[in-house]
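Example A, followed by Example B.
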Amino acid sequence: METKQLKFSYRDDSSIPTFPDDGPISVMDAHCGLCAKGAAWIARNDREEEFRIVPLQSELGEALAVHYGLDPSNPLSWLYLENGVAYTSLDALIRVGLRLGGVWNILVVLRILPRSVQDAMYGVVARNRYKFFGRADLCSVQNSEVRKRLLL
C-alpha cells in the first residue's frame, strides 16, 4: 500500500491534533501483540531516542490513519512518518530498519521482492496478527523505554 500525500500534509489537516513531529513517528495498533513487540524493538534499538510511537487507538493515531486512507477500526497496516512523509506495510518496516541502522539495514533486502509479493506477505500477517501474536495493551506496557516514546 502506498500513500499519495504530500510531505507534512497532515499539518494542514485541521482534524489532526498538533503533535511534536521532529522525529520519526510510528503509528501502531495498541491492541496487537506484534505491534507491542515492534514498539519494544524500536525502543531497544533507537540509540538516538528520536522515535515516537502513537497508539492507533488514540485521537492522534486515528486522525493520522484516516488522513492516510487507513481504517483505524481494522488496520491492515501500520503507519510510519519520517521527515513528514508517510510509509506503510513492509516499506515502513524497511525504512525503520534503515533509520535504526546497524544490523537492521539488512531489512532493505525485502525490496528485492516484487511489490505484489510484499503486499501479499504483509497482508497475511496483518489479517492474522491477533491469531498469530495475541493481544497486548501498548498503552499500559511496563517497558519504560517504550513508555517514554508514547504520544498519547
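Example B, a separate protein, is given below in the same form.
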Amino acid sequence: MVAFYHVCFAVQDLDQAMRDFQRAAGVEWSEPVSDRLGEWDYRIVFTTGGPPFIELIEGAPGSPWHAVEGARFDHLGFWSSDVDEGSRRMEREGFALDFSGCPYGRPFVYHRVDSIGARIELVDVGRQAGFLGTWDPEGAPMPAIDETFGG
C-alpha cells in the first residue's frame, strides 16, 4: 500500500482554522496561497515538516471545496503514476468520479468513497516537484500509486 501524503479539510475561514489547528495540535503552517481554478477562487495552505501534510482549503461558493454546511474532512491525497488510469481504476471499483481538475489543466481527480464519508484525491506524480518546491523545499520524493500494475 502506498501511504497518503496529505489529509484535507475544507473550511469556511482559512485563517481561523489555521489558528485553531495550531493552538489545538501545535502544527506549523506554510504561507497560504491564493489561486483560481476555472471560475472559483480559493485559498490553500499545508503544514510544514513533511508528509503526511495537513491541507486546509477555503473555496468559493459552487467550488469543489465550498464548506457551505460547515468545515469538513474532505479527502485523502495520494500521488498517482497516471491520473487518468487511476481514475478509471477507481470507477471500476465503484467509486464515482466527483470532480476532475484535468479539464482546467490540473492533473488531479476526486472520487467519492461513501463508506468513509470523504473523497480520495489522485494527483499526478509529475506535479510532485512543484508541490515540494512550494510546500516542502527540503522534502524527499514521495511514493506514488503505480497505476501500470493496478496499484
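On Example B: The helical segments are 14-25, 83-92, 128-135.
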